[in-house]
Amino acid sequence: MNIKSFSRLLLLASLWGGSFLFMRISAPVLGAIPTAFGRVAFGALGLLAILLVMGVRLSFEGRSKAVLGIGIITSGVPFLMYSLAAMVLPAGYSSILNATTPLMGVVIGGSFFGEQITLKKLMGVAIGLSGVFVLTETGPVAMNVATILAVMACLTATLCYGFASYLTKRLITDHTRIDNRVLAFGSQLGAVFTLAPFMVWQTYNKPIAWAHIGIEVWLSMLALGLLCTSFAYILFFRLIAEIGALKTLTVTFLIPLFGVFWGWLLLGERLSVGYALGGGMIGVALWLVLRPTSRPPHPLAPRTD
Whole-angstrom Cα distance, residue 173 to residue 166? Predict the structure, then answer.
């Protein structure tokens, strides 16, 4: 990986780590539904503008229903779950829990899609779940019903992400070649349609005093949609093209570092030994799951024993 690609990887990690900061600023003021809806709405508009500027053809290649449907589990539900969690949990807390996404992918792949679960991956899942337990027991947030529900919301989001990769392949990429950037836009559009009814309900039953919303909340929502979603998706797919999917997934190791750092730096969130213990265990689990499997020797290769 050259220095430019590594710099882009760090930038992507800082943006996705920053998303938990911006949700933590916006959700307690606006509520979970407006925060999630605002993110996907700004994200869709930002991606549309980028695609038009880049001259990308906006075509779903006859798979528009599948693309929009995938948006429910890639953005709609996860962003709502993280917004709900942001009303209770510190930004660093949620970013560490987000790192369990590859572990969920292992469990889901083995349970529903016939993927082989190796002993190494099984150990990774076990260590990762133990890390979640350690984090919730020793982290800086008091354990109560609200905290447990917030942690479950984060894990629900990672569960959606775990399903998303397999369903995207089966429903879309196995049938046609859609530009990944258009797929990203379609997923945000699908999330907009998913969350719109909830936003209408929120507006009717619990109207927000928009005139009294502080500038920091508006800036957080713009950053959440345009930087952490629109620009981050473009950066993500560029990295996949440059260094491959596996190396790009190492961003998962870096996101918690930035999530904890931004929360400490800008929100004054308290650090604790729980971050180090729980986050460290989840990091080890990710290494076990994402580490490339060594190839068996070629049948004609000379023996070395």
Answer: 10
Residue 303 domain flag: no
Name the strand (E) or helix (H) holding 179: none
Handedness of CA 207, 209, 213, 219 (dihedral sign): positive
Nearest to 214 by CA among 19, 14, 29, 27: 29
Look at the chain and report how many structural domains it folds into.
1
211: domain range? 9-290
Cα 242 from Cα 248, distance rounded (Å) = 9
pLDDT, one tens digit per residue, over 143-173 is 889 999 999 999 999 999 888 878 887 877 7
Q: How many CB atoms lie within 10 A of CB 146?
A: 13
Do the domain assignments include residue 305? no
57: in domain: yes
Provide the whole-model pTM.
Answer: 0.88
Has residue 298 been placed in a domain?
no
Q: Judging by beta carbons within 10 Å of its beta carbon (0-12, 13-18, 19+), is residue 135 exposed, middle or buried?
A: buried
- Give CA–CA dist 102/249, Å, rounded: 9
